[in-house]
Amino acid sequence: MFSRLRSDIQCILDRDPAARTAWEVLTCYPGLHALFLHRRAHWCWSHGLKWLGRFIAHCSRILTGIEIHPAAQIGPCVFIDHGMGVVIGETAEVGGGCTIYHGVTLGGTSLYKGAKRHPTLGRDVVVGAGAKVLGGFTVGDGARIGSNAVVTKPVPPGATAVGNPARIIEAESDLKREETASRLGFSAYGVTQNDDPLSQAMRGLIDNASSQEHQIALLWQAIEQLSKGQSTPSCVPGDAARSENFEAAKLNQLVGK
Prior knowledge:
It is a single chain. The chain has helices at about 1-15, 20-30, 30-45, 50-65, 175-185, 195-225, 250-255, and strands at about 65-70, 75, 80, 85-90, 95, 100, 105, 120, 125, 130-135, 140, 145, 150, 160, 165-170. Helices cover about 40% and strands about 15% of the residues. It is α/β, with parallel strands linked by helices. The chain has two domains: about 1-195, Hexapeptide repeat proteins (UDP N-Acetylglucosamine Acyltransferase, domain 1); about 200-255. Helix 3 (about 30-45) packs antiparallel against helix 4 (about 50-65). It has a six-stranded mixed β-sheet with strand order 3-6-9-12-14-15. Strands 1-4-7-10-13 form a five-stranded parallel β-sheet. A four-stranded parallel β-sheet has the order 2-5-8-11. It is elongated, with a radius of gyration of 26 Å.
C-alpha cells in the first residue's frame, strides 16, 4: 500500500510543476486522495462488500469532488489533476500513467446492465479538461483527448482527438510535435495550438490568399512600370489594387495561429 502511495506521489511531482514537496502532494491534492479511497472501495466491491464500496466512493466524492465507481479499474501512476467534476463510470478502465484533468467524464451510452458501457484508456493517455469520453470503446496508448472534446468512437494509439464531435488526428502527421511532447513528459491539457484540423485548414487558406494577393500586387506594379512611358496608360484600370491590403496575420490570430 505504501509503495503504491509513494509511486503516486512521485508521478505527481514529475508531472505537475506546481507540486513542490511530497508533503504538499500528500495533504493538498484531491486526485491523490480520491485514488487512495477508490482502492479501498474497489477492494470492498471485489470482495462482495458492494454497499461498503459504494459508501466509501460516496464519501470520497463529498471530500474530493471526484466520483469514481468502486468497480472501475484504475492502473498505477494515474494523475487526476485538480479533479473537481471528474466522473469515472462502473466499467471504465484507466491504464497506468494516464493524466486526467478536471471536468472529465468517462461515461457510458448503454443502459444494459453487465455490458461494457464505459471507455478503456490505454497507458499514458492524456484527457484534457472538460472532455467527455462516452462509450465502451478503447482509447489507445499514448493518445490525447483535447479539452472539451466529445469522443464517441475509438482513438488509435498515439493519435489526438479534438472537437465536438471529436475529430481524430493521426500521430504520423505530427511526429515532430510528438517527439517534443515526449521530451517534456506530457502535453498539458491534452491539446496544442496545432491540433484542430479546421483551424489548420483555415490557416492554409489564409496563407494561400495572402501569397496570391502579394503576387497580384507585384504584377500590377510591373504593369505600372511598363506603362509609365505611355501618354495614356489605358492598360491599367483605375480601381486596380497596387498594394497589399490582406491582413493575414490578423486573420491567423483570430483562428488561433
